Please model this.
Amino acid sequence: MALTDANPSATPVSSTPLGGVAGWPTGLTGLGYGGDYNPEQWPQATRLEDVEMMIEAGVNIVSVAIFAWATLEPDEGQYEFGWLDEMMDRLHAAGIRVALATATASPPPWLTARHPEILPQLADGTVLGQGGRQSYAVTHPVFRQYALTMATVMAERYKDHPALALWHVDNEIGCHVPRDYSDAAASAFRSWLAERYGSIDALNEAWGTAFWSQRYSAFEDILPPRTAPTYANPTQQLDFDRFSSRALLGYYQDLRDTLRAITPDVPITTNFMASTGTKGMDYFDWAAELDVISNDHYTGADNDDRHIELAFSADLTRGIGGGRPWILMEHSTSAVNWQPRNRTKAPGEMLRNSLAHVARGADSVMFFQWRQSAAGAEKFHSAMVPHAGRDSDVWANTVALGQALRDLAPVQGSTVRSRVAMVFDYEAWWASELDSHPTQELRYLDQAQALYKQLWLRGVSTDVVHPGADLSGYDLVIVPTLYLVSDADAANVAAVAERGGTVLVTYFSGIVTPEDHVRLGGYPGAFRDLLGVRTEEFYTLQATETVTVSGGGPLAGTYSADLWTEKTHLTGAQAVAVHDDGALAGLPAVTRNAVGSGSAWYSATRFEEAGTAALVEAVLADAGVTGEIEAPAGVEVVRRHGADGASFLFVLNHTDAEASVKASGLDLLTGSTATGDLTIAPGAVAVIQES
Ligand code: GLA
Model:
């Protein structure tokens, strides 16, 4: 898919021609391996040892200077580049490619001290001060100018350096301050609204300001949704989410355009956080602006399904990039230090985590960070070179992973093919979790991941894509709780069933327009015709309440559901499961509507795990989709396909027991050949180049 096609439904953003820029770091061959490298934290002797150890580990790319602004420019206009010049030369001499940062990710103290007006603010007016990182308001023209100057200085200095392979713009843009409520943001928000709506009357209409006397007479009177006596206008909140994502993207675009003008042939990226908990940025909207997609991922210590959440994140990253290979820019060799209780990785877990990303399309595996810091806020965060030095499991794992990635060089450029898509939309995520809703407990991501887990457990390869994406190639499309949907995206989903595919939509979907106005006449609004049902009222459940639902046919059995139920009537569909008890006893909970040669299923309730499993099983059967190959529980199986007809079967054993699957071909990791039966040791990985 062409770079500019990544998000067909997104409003076009100003885009710079990408001519001449291949979508991969220049000069990087084989799979990439490395991490954030912060030599400014270390004396010369350590820096010399670093390069030796990188060679030993097989590192071929590092991200440099991400947090180096204060070291590079210790006072305004005074630059100290000698150490970085030397480092770039040394890395080049060692054959290591450099993803060079703009060094803008944390403004130096002299800047925030001299210009406190660039600091961002919370909704309650709290100013986020210096002393941490990312203490800037991207919309403040003074900060923007300083950042552009720094990017210009970096680009001019290193434009001809042979180590330069990729630009790494800022770092995790929006990570700490996804929403800034400062005066600078307020002013930019007003301009964005004026452009979006054209007139104040159009804004009043969209925001429904006849309610609670909120009618505006001028754009000048509008503020971000700062802390107010009660709920802020929901459309104002939603537009502020849209604006904030675009403002952060605009900051990236400005830096990118600056770099592009000086180094037109060097590809440009910024690292996304497409994973649990990060909902601030609409990465489907951002994707077309990057030459190569890169993502950071950290597993949650308290999540027993963290390897499944990892797979979801990787599939989402691949979907954001339209299927192209992507860079895993950061993950961790072992424990992180920013969760309430952090977890040291078990033997084999780091390799499995890394190769699970590769299985799902990552062609580069990188870490935060190369050498574990001795000081500062991340000194207890694991790294490729741990505090303990060479005599450690972590270093042995680092070296072993480097070898594994060299062995896997043939998979580079191959892609994942899926018959199932799950649609995922950041705007729907924002809107579905706004306040003033039937329940405050609904979590969009949880619903998506609960369904995804069942696909993962069955070894079904799934693309996580925008609802406006090309869905024509999928046999099954799953639509988790798509509260907000445009007419065009709803039609795009309906077309799947009309041409013979299977669609599953879950509760509280299709409810509102992009303006957050309810689609009248009964829920699920935009999907009513497709699903052949009409819901007249929601019945949300209390924390202690559950209901039971019994199904027939493919959903035979009795299942428990919680949080959400709906009084749903059939208007063409057939009931597959009905409520056994509660206020809705006898009424449908799951329905199936025959549409053309396809079908459209609706789940009007939130099932607990067994019901979710049965539901996913039923729609897979309806669509005729099975897992990649049969595999025991806890064994992950993913296939990548090469353009030349080659295929690579990744088998990751997440269990404590030996496992067997049917596979034939060369195990690229061990060099042994599987002829029909493949046995994988507990916790181990095999990658079979299939014959
Ligand atoms: C983020 C940042 C890194 C580092 C890691 C720690 O991903 O980009 O600088 O703070 O988190 O996990």
In short: The CA atoms of residues 491 and 526 lie 9 Å apart. Confidence is low (pLDDT under 50) at residues 1-20. Residues 171-172, 296, 298, 330, 336, 368, 378, 381 surround alpha-D-galactopyranose (CB under 6 Å).
